[in-house]
Design brief:
With 274 residues, the protein is an alpha/beta fold. It has one domain: TIM Barrel. The chain is built from ten helices and ten strands.
Length: 274
């Protein structure tokens, strides 16, 4: 079984403001050629709430530049991670009309570029803490569903819920428009079992983030933490997963970001033909 690897936008550029992840405003164009050199197939776009309106995905000129670079370097943009939603979670904020309009504009931009999946992070500041949070999200998504109807875009949730809880949660959404983004590193950090997760909601997984984390700890190089990649790839084969595997790996400590991705890709090779 062949696996298609991509990289999270910003992972091939300098670290910005000491953040592990941020939109690389000055460097995003150069990441297409870098990804191509590494043999990657895609880049997962990122959006921050800060300077959101200036993100090229939201302007005609920016969209044109993205299309040209994507074609030139054979790098697809299949997915987008909305860190902006984690920074300003519309399901938690009372006066959220502007935030929901931002979501619609993002859907419009994704439609133009052929982006299939928008990741909604229900972790950290976006984590669902009570019934009110969950109910608000469901209500808003039911309204947004009408906006998604004429596109092939899905909103997919990345959550810190346990396997059973996430299975119950995702079943409350229309499967034509919503699904799950699976992050093997985050699950390891929460001490969840990969087999349990895939048994619970494997059929709802449309995008996968690849990282490694220590239990209750930080992101580190692949193979150095508690993520069980053998179980991951076995389960991906079982469900005949055909989506992307997005490297959202630890950052290089000495700005050798392309080399760090090479090391991680090499590590993953051992799981391909097991």
């Amino acid at each position: 079984m062949n696996f298609s690897y991509g990289v999270m936008q910003g992972r091939l550029s300098k670290i910005i403001e000491n953040k592990i992840q941020a939109f690389p405003e000055k460097y995003w164009k150069s990441e297409f050629s870098k990804a191509n050199k590494l043999g990657l197939k895609s880049i997962e776009w990122t959006l921050d709430y800060k300077n959101l309106k200036n993100n090229p995905i939201l302007s005609k000129n920016g969209q044109l530049k993205i299309k040209k670079l994507s074609k030139k370097y054979s790098i697809k943009i299949n997915s987008l991670t909305g860190d902006c939603f984690m920074q300003k979670p519309f399901w938690k904020i009372k006066n959220n009309k502007e935030l929901i309009q931002d979501l619609k504009k993002i859907i419009d931009g994704c439609r133009v570029l052929g982006i299939k999946f928008i990741v909604i992070p229900l972790v950290d500041k976006g984590s669902i803490k009570n019934y009110k949070n969950k109910n608000n999200l469901i209500k808003i998504c039911n309204k947004i569903k009408k906006y998604l109807h004429n596109s092939k875009i899905k909103l997919i949730f990345e959550s810190d819920y346990s396997p059973k809880k996430l299975k119950y949660f995702i079943k409350q959404f229309d499967q034509n428009f919503f699904g799950i983004n699976y992050d093997v590193g985050n699950s390891a950090g929460l001490n969840y079992d990969v087999d349990d997760e895939f048994k619970s909601y494997g059929k709802y997984i449309f995008n996968v983030h690849i990282k490694d984390r220590v239990k209750n700890g930080k992101t580190i190089r692949l193979g150095k933490g508690n993520a069980n990649f053998s179980k991951l790839f076995n389960n991906l084969r079982k469900i005949r997963y055909k989506g992307n595997l997005i490297l959202q790996t630890a950052r290089s400590k000495n700005n050798q970001h392309m080399n760090e991705i090479k090391i991680n890709l090499k590590y993953l090779e051992q799981f391909h033909n097991v």
